[in-house]
Design a protein that fits this description.
93 residues, alpha+beta, 2 helices, globular
Length: 93
Amino acid sequence: MSTNNGNFIRPGKHGSQVVLDPDYLLCHALYMPDGQTVVRSNMTLGQAIEAIAFAHIKAKLPHLADKCNAAKIEFKDGKFVVCFADSIDNLVF
């Protein structure tokens, strides 16, 4: 498990789970993996959270990136929880 400022990544058999604190999201610059800036006004909140969670995985545990083909976002206990999986069928944590 990788931890950063109350945020963490929990690897799983078919994917991973990223927990993000809303305060962290408010000050986070949004960049795509290829380095291009994402314009916030063109993204939904869910897309922005998923992009940040994916960037968090790519930065901290890049070997898990190939298991991020499907995503589910929940708000639980005051934090955003993003579950990634290699397929939609495995999107259960």
